[in-house]
């Protein structure tokens, strides 16, 4: 069972166990004198909108209404409209590979509050975002007993990661994470940017890292660098924070999914 403030989701691995799982849930509800709104309840369904996403037996889909809201937008003509665009994109960021890089022209423009200009770079990025959203990839749920894998990527102005699971040699995406770097972070050496990407991902996806062993697939000697005595203060802090989790470092192999194709290089 998962509870998020006033939303509750009861999941069963087998349909024949679902009634029993619901009975246990109702016992707890009665014990604490909680009340349910019948109009907002659904039982025995294989898919349902939950926390803004469509959750099914196998996949998690982006909210079609949120996707359509962006696809129907025209080019922003002022800061308010651009903020509306980036806000709508942020609501779908877990589905968007390298979200920070795709939206970088927009974020740069937002910094120019007094001098709004919709540049050719913004228009190109806008078209690319719409094309991506029109074929937004599905995400999958992790399964107890999984070992998850993380790919990380950094550029001069952004860091990104993707958490995946593997089954029968095929990789499927669980979650995308991305961040635009501030001025100070842009000056970090590449190895420190990669460490930052890892820390940002763990903070965002802490429950995954607490619940599953995770293999970080990277071409950089991340493990050795984090353990060096002469490592920078930032890397030492990263190493201390990462020590809480069951993380291993693995050489990057070929990514086995078309949806992850833009994570082919660091």
Q: What is the CATH architecture annotation of the largest domain?
A: Roll
What proportion of the residues is helical, as a percent range? 25-40%
Q: What does the main sheet amount to?
A: 5 strands, mixed
CATH fold label of the largest domain:
Ubiquitin-like (UB roll)
Number of domains: 3
Low-confidence stretches: none
What structural class do helix, strand and pairing data support? alpha+beta
Q: H/E element string?
A: EEHEEEHHHHHEEEEHHHEHHE
Please state how the strands of the largest beta sheet are arranged side by side: 9-8-7-10-11
Radius of gyration: 21 Å
Q: What is the β-strand count?
A: 11
From the spread of the alpha carbons, the general shape counts as globular
Distance between termini? 38 Å
Task: Write up this protein.
Strand 8 (158-167) and strand 9 form a beta hairpin. The protein has three domains: 2-44, no CATH class; 64-134; 142-263, Roll (Ubiquitin-like (UB roll)). With 266 residues, the protein is an alpha+beta fold. The chain has helices at 18-31, 64-71, 79-91, 99-102, 104-110, 120-134, 183-186, 190-204, 206-211, 222-227, 233-242, and strands at residues 2-4, 7-9, 47-50, 53-56, 59-61, 139-140, 148-154, 158-167, 170-180, 214-218, 247-251. It has eleven helices and eleven strands. Strands 9-8-7-10-11 form a five-stranded mixed sheet.
């Amino acid at each position: 069972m998962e509870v998020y403030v006033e939303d509750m989701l009861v999941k069963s691995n087998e349909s024949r166990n679902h009634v029993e799982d619901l009975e246990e849930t109702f016992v707890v509800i009665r014990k604490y004198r909680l009340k349910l709104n019948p109009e907002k309840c659904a039982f025995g369904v294989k898919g349902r909108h939950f926390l803004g996403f469509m959750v099914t037996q196998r996949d998690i889909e982006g909210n079609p209404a949120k996707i359509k809201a962006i696809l129907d937008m025209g080019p922003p003509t002022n800061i308010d409209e651009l903020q509306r665009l980036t806000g709508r994109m942020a609501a779908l960021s877990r589905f968007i590979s390298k979200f920070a890089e795709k939206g970088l022209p927009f974020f740069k423009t937002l910094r120019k509050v007094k001098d709004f200009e919709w540049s050719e770079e913004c228009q190109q990025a806008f078209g690319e975002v719409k094309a991506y959203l029109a074929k937004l990839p599905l995400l999958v749920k992790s399964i107890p007993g999984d070992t998850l894998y993380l790919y990380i990527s950094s550029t001069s102005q952004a860091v990104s990661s993707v958490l995946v699971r593997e089954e029968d040699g095929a990789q499927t995406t669980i979650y995308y994470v991305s961040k635009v770097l501030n001025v100070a972070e842009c000056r970090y050496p590449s190895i420190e940017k990669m460490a930052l990407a890892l820390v940002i991902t763990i903070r965002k996806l802490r429950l995954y890292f607490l619940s599953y062993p995770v293999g970080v697939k990277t071409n950089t000697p991340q493990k050795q660098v984090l353990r060096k005595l002469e490592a920078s203060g930032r890397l030492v802090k990263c190493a201390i924070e990462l020590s809480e989790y069951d993380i291993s470092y693995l050489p990057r192999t070929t990514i086995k999914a078309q949806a992850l194709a833009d994570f082919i290089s660091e």
